[in-house]
Design brief:
69 residues, alpha+beta, 2 strands
Length: 69
């Protein structure tokens, strides 16, 4: 599991290191975190900022697992 997480983090850092942010980059970031969530590797909120601009923000998962919210 640790190796998968390291690979995913490496891919993510490669994606956000791009100089220009376009719709394709947004979709790649979204696909990555959606994959992680669907495979129970991530639950939380993601905010990606490049320079002074927020390029991606989204929440994944549940706020309360006990009450299924």
């Amino acid at each position: 599991m640790k190796t998968k997480s390291s690979i995913i983090i490496g891919i993510f850092l490669t994606l956000i290191s791009c100089q220009s942010v376009d719709n394709k980059t947004y979709q790649q970031i979204d696909s990555l975190f959606d994959y992680c969530f669907q495979n129970k590797m991530f639950n939380g909120v993601v905010l990606v900022q490049q320079r002074q601009e927020i390029i991606y923000h989204k929440g994944f998962g549940k706020a309360d697992f006990e009450n299924d919210i």
